[in-house]
Give the backbone structure.
Amino acid sequence: MLPPQKTAALELDLLEQKWSGKYPYAIRSRRTNWDKQTSFFDFPVEIVLVPE
């Protein structure tokens, strides 16, 4: 299992591949503000991960 930060980064790449043509501003915003938007990854994994 990948760490949540790495998984989120990979998912952002997939999101960008699929939607950047239609929503370039939204993708650019995510990339620009990535550090602020992912600050919850500073919490322990037990808090961040949702049980399956």
Summary: The CA atoms of residues 18 and 48 lie 26 Å apart. The longest helix spans residues 4-19.
